[in-house]
Structures are given as structure tokens and as C-alpha cells.
Design a protein that fits this description.
The complex is a heterodimer of chains A (247) and B (253). With 247 residues, chain A is mainly α. Chain A is 69% helix and 0% strand. Chain A has helices at 2-29, 66-101, 103-117, 122-132, 138-158, 168-190, 209-215, 217-245. In chain A, helix 1 packs antiparallel against helix 2 (66-101), helix 2 runs antiparallel to helix 3 (103-117) and helix 4 runs antiparallel to helix 5 (138-158). The longest helix of chain A has 36 residues, at 66-101. The chains are: A mainly alpha (247), B mainly alpha (253).
Chain lengths: 247, 253
């Protein structure tokens, strides 16, 4: 029983650290390093220690420090996807509570509704909502997108054929879906429909991916590597929590 | 988890409720989008139907590829019988789930472009379109989409083998198809992304244009199509699954 709480404690501490670090770095992350910038992205220090200008992971194509942008981007990417995961947790929690109180009612009403919603492909639905709400106030929009993603994934978790979210396995299931929501929102940001520049997110930092892969690969690879690492860690944490709940 | 009611009548009743939910959600989205743009042009339905064969062709090819590669991987793991092989397989599956798919698709496209010096954009009928280019585009897109399906297929193969303790090929293939149908929304989402990035002339390009114009009715139509396709496949499988599974197990002895 201890493992899910350890996983939740690790997540809480990591999120708190990211939010504190992201908040203090926000203004620095949007500043161009004018003294060193020469029109192209500065390389990371492990490639060229003299030309990097003190930027550990180099700069982006307009001379902004990549590492600080990644930390600030973590705040928007992980924070927003966390809202979606929390929404999924609440829906699934209510569902589990409801099935305990009245299994037949849930069987006849909620299960077919969830079956219908789970038929939707997740990122296209969120993309449609993003295009409909484009131009509305930023925070409201982004929260709506995250909640929509959480709802579709909650419906999917309730559908037969998927792992049953029962009691302490629920937390593991939601942590795994957090990784899915993180990647989903990154896709929306990549298409320019989510977090808007200059606010960085791991998804919108990859918007010029095709051009950057050829000219300055580090700008295209590091955000993707951060996304990948975060998703893998969340998947493994979720798996650990699920397996701890199994008899 | 609340299991859905079983039996033919209950399955059909459930499908009706699920279909009503799908259409109600789409209706809400259309209402939220407001009035459609004025102008004369093709209807969303005709555009969607026009692009559907390309999407279905890509899905068919990738499913075949995923079944082939999945079977080979499971067979190799069976032969190795080692814990390491199974851990490796699970690691690959987690890795493929966690890579941002748009990134993978763009990197693949770039690699093919650099390797061949050219990329045939569009698949549309243009002067420089040759059957070889079209085929190359289809194969690369199919291979990329298969990467999403392979973990699902492998998982289904292993689960089928554990359930019936068998090496019955038909039962395994059926389990894999069932798993793919249950997770069709994920596969269709990856299919749309593949079509967008690799410029395959299916629903993906249409969807992206519709969200950028914006033409909400068309975008919602594409999303609705994915949901309806999934629901139809699920209902067919739920009706056919008990008989087919029983047949597979009887054959197995």
C-alpha cells in the first residue's frame, strides 16, 4: 500500500520544484542573449564550449536560453496535463464510488455513455475544441482542452477491454494517462492551437521542427527528449502503482 | 469497471445509446462552433467520402504489417524464452507509446528525404506523380503507422497465448484484431497524424485544413467518422467474438 503514496509524493515534490523554478526563470527564458547571439542558434556547451556562451543546452533560433525555456515549458506542459489527469481521476473516482453504490444503474447508464465517448479519437477532438475556442482568453481555453482530454481518457478507462480502474489501481491508471494527456497537449501545441508563444511549452518549442532538425538539431531534440523522459517516467510510476495494487 | 450488458439484444441496445452519445457530442460541438461559413462548394460529407479510400488503404496496409511484425517478434520471444527478451519487448512497447508521434513522423520523413533526395508531396494527381513515388509514400506511411499498432498486437498475442495456453494462429490473429478494434481511436488518431505529416491524401490532410480555415463542420465530420467507424467495428466484434473465440479454442483442442 505504501508504493502509490510514494509515487504521489515524488510527483508532488517534482511538480512543486518545477513550478518554483519555472516561476523564477520566466522572464529570463524570454530574453535574447544579445552579446553572444550571432543570428543562429548557439550550440550546447558539450558540443562547443567556447561558442555556447554559457548556455548549457545552447539557445533557440532567436538566442533564448534553451534550458530555462525547457524548465518554464515544463510548468505549462506538466501543469496543464496534470489538470486533465485530475479531471480523469475525479470522473473515475465518482464512477468507482457509483458502481459500488448501484452496479446495475452504472451498467445500464454510465457504461454505454462511456462506450460512446471512448469511440472518439482523443487528439482530433481536442484539436476541434481548440479551433472552435481559438481567440478566447488563454487560461480558460487551455483548461478546457485539458479537461476534454481527461474526459475522453476517463471514458476510455471505463470501457470494457481496458484495465479496470479499481481502488488503488485507479491512481496508477490515471498516472499512466497523464503521460498520454501530456503527449496529446504537446501535439495541439505543435499545431499552434494550444499554448501560444512567447510562453514556452514542450510542444510549441517543436513548432519549427522540420527546419530545426536540419540546421540546429538540439532545439528540435531536447524538447522531444524532455517529453519522452517525462512520459516514460509517468508510465513507469503508473505501472508500479498498478502492480502494487494487485493481489 | 461496469461490464456492458451481454447478449445480442443488450449489445444492440448499448450500441444505440453509444451512437446517440456520439451524435449528441458532435451536435454540441457544431452548435458551439456557431454558423458555418457562407459560400458555394462541396459538402463536408462528399469531401470526407472522397478521402476515405486513401485512409482505409493506409490502415489496411499498416494492420497487415503490424500483424506480420508482431507475430515475428512474439515468435522470437517464444524461442528465446528468456526474461531479458520479454523485458526488451515491454521496453520497446513503452518507448513507442511515449515518443511524441508527430516528432517521430517528421524525423522519419526527413530521413527518407535525405536518403532518397526527394519526397513526393501530396499523393495528389500532379504532373510529377509516378506510381513508384506513390507506392513509396504508402509504404513509409504504413510502416510508421504500424509502429503504433505493433505494441497492441504483441500484447494481444501474448494475452491470447496465456489465456488458452495455445499456439493457435487463428485465435491469436483474432485476438489481435479485437484489440486493434477496441483501441481503434488511438490507431485512427495516429493515422490522421501520419497523413498530415507524410502528406498522404486521406482524412488527415482534410482535417488539418478544416481546423486551420476554420471549417468546423468538416473537422467535426472527420472526428465523427472516426467515432462511427470505431463503434461499428466494436459492435460487430462484440456480436461475433464469442462464436469465433469458441471456434478457435475448439480447433485448438
Amino acid at each position: 500500500m505504501a508504493k502509490p503514496w510514494v509515487a504521489l509524493a515524488i510527483i508532488a515534490v517534482t511538480l512543486a520544484a518545477i513550478f518554483v523554478a519555472g516561476g523564477s526563470l520566466q522572464s529570463y527564458a524570454n530574453m535574447m542573449d544579445a552579446p553572444h547571439f550571432n543570428g543562429t542558434a548557439l550550440p550546447p556547451c558539450f558540443i562547443n564550449s567556447t561558442a555556447c556562451g554559457g548556455h548549457i543546452l545552447g539557445t533557440d533560433e532567436i538566442g533564448r536560453d534553451l534550458l530555462s525555456r525547457l524548465i518554464v515549458g515544463a510548468r505549462s506542459s506538466l501543469g496543464l496535463s496534470f489538470v486533465g489527469a485530475l479531471c480523469e481521476f475525479c470522473i473515475l473516482g465518482l464512477f468507482v464510488f457509483g458502481t459500488r453504490r448501484g452496479a446495475t444503474v452504472a451498467r445500464l447508464t454510465i457504461a454505454p455513455l462511456a462506450d460512446g465517448i471512448s469511440c472518439y479519437a482523443a487528439w482530433p477532438v481536442v484539436m476541434v475544441i481548440a479551433s472552435i475556442t481559438f481567440g478566447e482568453s488563454s487560461l480558460w481555453r487551455l483548461a478546457t482542452l485539458s479537461l476534454a482530454a481527461g474526459t475522453v481518457l476517463a471514458a476510455r478507462a471505463m470501457t470494457p477491454g481496458f484495465d479496470a480502474p479499481v481502488t488503488c489501481r485507479l491512481a496508477g491508471s490515471v498516472i499512466r494517462d497523464w503521460a498520454t494527456i501530456l503527449l496529446l497537449l504537446a501535439t495541439i501545441d505543435f499545431f499552434g492551437m494550444g499554448v501560444q508563444p512567447p510562453t514556452p511549452s514542450w510542444g510549441n518549442m517543436l513548432a519549427k521542427l522540420q527546419m530545426l532538425l536540419q540546421t540546429s538539431w538540439w532545439v528540435a531534440v531536447f524538447p522531444a527528449a524532455f517529453l519522452f523522459t517525462a512520459a516514460v517516467l509517468l508510465q513507469l510510476l503508473g505501472r508500479a502503482a498498478i502492480s502494487s495494487g494487485q493481489p | 469497471m461496469a461490464r456492458l450488458p451481454s447478449g445480442i439484444a443488450a449489445t444492440l441496445l448499448n450500441a444505440v445509446v453509444a451512437a446517440a452519445t456520439i451524435f449528441a457530442c458532435s451536435f454540441v460541438l457544431v452548435k458551439a462552433a456557431g454558423s458555418p461559413p457562407n459560400g458555394v462548394g462541396p459538402s463536408p460529407l462528399s469531401l470526407i467520402l472522397e478521402h476515405l479510400p486513401a485512409t482505409l488503404g493506409l490502415l489496411a496496409l499498416s494492420t497487415l504489417l503490424a500483424l506480420g511484425v508482431g507475430a515475428a517478434l512474439v515468435s522470437l520471444t517464444d524461442r528465446a524464452r528468456g526474461r531479458l527478451a520479454k523485458i526488451l519487448l515491454a521496453g520497446i512497447a513503452i518507448g513507442l507509446r511515449c515518443v511524441p508521434f508527430f516528432w517521430l513522423a517528421l524525423a522519419a520523413q526527413l530521413m527518407v528525404t535525405i536518403r532518397l533526395g526527394t519526397w513526393y508531396f501530396g499523393g495528389e494527381k500532379s504532373n510529377h506523380a509516378s506510381p513508384a513515388n506513390y507506392l513509396l509514400q504508402l509504404v513509409v506511411s504504413g510502416c510508421l503507422l504500424a509502429l503504433v499498432q505493433i505494441p497492441i498486437v504483441v500484447q494481444a498475442f501474448i494475452a491470447a497465448a496465456a489465456r488458452s495456453n495455445s499456439r493457435n494462429g487463428l485465435a491469436r490473429v483474432f485476438s489481435a484484431l479485437e484489440a486493434l478494434a477496441m483501441r481503434l481511436p488511438e490507431v485512427l488518431a495516429a493515422c490522421l497524424m501520419t497523413e498530415i505529416v507524410l502528406v498522404w491524401p486521406g482524412e488527415g490532410r482534410l482535417f488539418l485544413s478544416a481546423t486551420q480555415v476554420p471549417w468546423p463542420a468538416l473537422a467535426i465530420g472527420v472526428v465523427l467518422l472516426t467515432a462511427v467507424l470505431t463503434l461499428i467495428l466494436r459492435v460487430i466484434l462484440r456480436l461475433a467474438a464469442p462464436a469465433l473465440r469458441l471456434r478457435g479454442e475448439l480447433k485448438n483442442g
